Amino acid sequence: MAWRWIGRFAVPALVAAVFAAPLWFMVVGSLRPAGLPPPRTLEVLPAAPTLAAYRRLPELMPLFTYLANSALVVALAVPVTVLVASLTGFGLRLLTPPARRRMILGLLALLLVPVTAVWATRFELFRLAGAVDTYVPLLAPALLAVSPFLVLLYAWSFGGVPDSQLEAARLEGAGWLTVWRRLALPQVRPATLAVAVLAFTFHWSNFIDPLLYLHSGDRYTYPLGLRFLLLLNPTDWPLLMAGCVIATAPCVVVFLLAQRILLNDSPLSALRYGGPG
Amino acid sequence: MSRRPLTAWAFLAPYAVAVALLILVPALLNVGYAGTDHTGLTRDPRFVGLANVRRLLDDSFLVDSLQASLFHVALAVPVRLVAAVGLGLLLAAPRPGGRWFRTAVYLPTVIPDVALAVLFLWVLNPLYGPLNQLLGLVGHPGFTWLADPTTARVGVVLMLAFPIGEGFVVVLAARRMLNGRLYEAAALEGCGPVGQLRRLTLPLLAPVLVLLAVRDTILTLQVNFVPAYVLTDGRPANATLYLPVYIFDQVFEFSGFAYGSLITILLMLVTAAVITVQLVMVRRWRVLR
Question: Does the beta carbon of B20 lie under 8 angstroms from any beta carbon of chain A?
Answer without folding.
Answer: no
